[in-house]
Design goal:
The complex is a heterodimer of chains A (190) and B (279). By secondary structure, chain A is an alpha+beta fold. Chain A has a six-stranded mixed sheet with strand order 1-6-5-4-3-2. In chain A, strand 2 and strand 3 form a beta hairpin. In chain A, helix 1 packs across helix 6 and helix 4 packs parallel to helix 6. Chain B has a domain of 88 residues. Chain B is 47% helix and 3% strand. Chain B has a two-stranded antiparallel sheet. Chain B is elongated and about 135 Å long. The relative contact order of chain B is 0.05. The chains are: A alpha+beta (190), B mainly alpha (279). At the A-B interface, helix 1, helix 2, helix 4, strand 1 and helix 6 of A face helix 11, helix 12, helix 13 and strand 3 of B. Strand 1 of chain A pairs parallel with strand 3 of chain B.
């Protein structure tokens, strides 16, 4: 039984295959050759099965936004790898070692496995002007459709994949228009 | 050799009756038997001896006629035989061979029988008339049974028939007329302003009973009418409209052309901010 966002992702890809077929084939080929950084692939999804078209589409969507400067990635060194996402207390204990200005609450009843909060703007590109901001936190393996849904909806996401001692945070940049105006003009939307 | 002082081994009478000398020495000591002893021995010998009976399996007894003590097929039909003599039985009654109705059609091999055809009833049983009750009794869930029963009663009321007769009419309508009948029923429901979900459930009741008739070989068709899609927008667990979610996830695909995507996906070194304890 697929989840709600999995079905939505399948529908989105299948109805646009005329545009996506060749790019997705290219993404899958690049992924098999290891041309994309492993932390980015783990950010998209962690799964034992080989990647499919839908995983490739999510990577393409995130990668394209990063290339356009719409998304920024941040690596938050934690020095600890996560326990199973059901181990709420253990993960909460490990996340206390987060460097400032980050803090996290593991709460599986929340939208995701928890919430990552930062108390000041992460960079001058950040949309957050010095105010406290937070993002859904996904611990361990997750589905690519869920990753893309978080990004499309809240424009930010924190991932702490299994085996990783680094939290990867992505968020939308503020000065897109001025910094990447030329790129945007070059990539005129359809 | 057995010793004279010891009783002989082997077969010997195990009854408790008084008996003669057990050994030759005793016989010589007793002398010749008296007349009373001889009479008693004759009387003992005339009495039936105790016999060991071996119980036979019941099947063997069952095949034995208790009257003539014959096995099956070997009765002597004598005065003690339990079977009546063959002449008293007479000729066996001829089995009534069912005949097709004049309106039934055949191509020489297969038959297309009309409702109520004796041949069809003999082969498959007269099922059509009771399909309604048998269908309802086949439903395990009481809620489903109650809902389907209500839907079938309404369908029958629309036809102006009893539920069992309405079911019979639907099932016997065939794969051409049956769907037309149901479509008219659905149009009537739509005209009444009933919602899509209610119409779909009433359609499901009719589809279920026709499928039941097909499964029980009462008819040879099934109702292939798809239910209508509900116009109510589905919501995700977090309250987002499903259509909106599809739209959002398709954002990348609709935003760029194929050439732009091919350009954007070229692997480059991904720069990122780093936050550490020493940051």
């Amino acid at each position: 039984m697929s989840t709600f966002h999995e079905r939505a992702l399948k529908h989105a890809v299948q109805t646009n295959l005329s545009v996506l077929a060749q790019p997705l084939q290219e993404v899958l080929s690049n992924h098999e050759k290891g041309k994309y950084p492993s932390w980015l692939c783990d950010f998209v999804t962690q799964k034992r099965a080989p990647w499919d078209l839908y995983d490739a589409y999510v990577l393409l969507a995130i990668y394209a936004r990063w290339r356009l400067g719409e998304l920024v990635f941040a690596h938050v060194e934690l020095g600890e790898v996560p326990e199973a996402d059901a181990e709420v207390e253990a993960n909460q204990r490990l996340l206390k070692k987060l460097p400032p200005p980050f803090s996290a609450v593991v709460d599986r009843s929340a939208d995701g496995d928890g919430i990552l909060t930062w108390s000041e703007a992460l960079s001058e590109f950040s949309e957050d002007s010095g105010e406290q901001a937070n993002t859904p936190l996904e611990i361990g393996s997750t589905k690519s459709s869920r990753t893309l849904w978080h990004i499309e909806r809240s424009q930010r996401l924190a991932r702490w994949p299994y085996g990783s001692s680094v939290l990867v945070v992505t968020y939308r940049t503020k000065k897109f228009e001025s910094w990447f105006g030329d790129s945007k003009e070059a990539l005129r939307t359809r | 050799m057995p010793q004279l002082d010891e009783p002989p081994t082997g077969l010997f009478d195990v009854s408790r009756e008084p008996r003669g000398p057990a050994t030759l020495k005793e016989a010589l000591a007793q002398g010749p038997p008296t007349a009373e002893q001889i009479d008693a021995a004759v009387e003992r010998a005339s009495r039936p001896r105790r016999q060991e009976t071996i119980p036979l399996p019941p099947a063997v007894f069952a095949r034995l006629c208790p009257g003539c003590r014959s096995l099956d097929g070997e009765h002597d039909f004598g005065p003690t035989c339990t079977l009546p003599p063959p002449e008293a039985v007479g000729e066996p009654e001829a089995f009534p061979v069912p005949q097709h109705l004049p309106s039934c059609r055949s191509d020489g091999m297969d038959w297309w029988c009309e409702p109520g055809c004796p041949v069809r009833d003999a082969l498959f049983g007269s099922k059509a008339g009771s399909i309604y009750s048998r269908f309802l009794s086949s439903l395990v869930a009481p809620g489903t049974r109650r809902a389907y029963q209500g839907d079938l009663v309404l369908f029958a009321r629309w036809l102006g028939l009893e539920p069992s007769a309405a079911t019979e009419r639907l099932v016997q309508a065939g794969w051409v007329e049956g769907p037309k009948l149901v479509q008219r029923w659905l149009e009537e429901l739509r005209a009444q302003g009933l919602s899509t979900s209610v119409r779909n459930r009433r359609l499901a009741a009719l589809k279920a009973i026709v499928k039941f008739a097909l499964d029980t070989e009462v008819c040879t068709w099934s109702l292939q009418i798809a239910g209508e899609r509900s116009k109510r927008t589905a919501l995700s667990p977090d309250g987002v409209r499903y259509a909106g979610m599809q739209e959002a996830l398709a954002h990348t695909a609709r935003r760029f052309t194929q050439e732009q995507l091919l350009d954007l996906l070229q692997p480059q070194e991904v720069s990122c901010l780093r936050f550490t304890r020493e940051h």
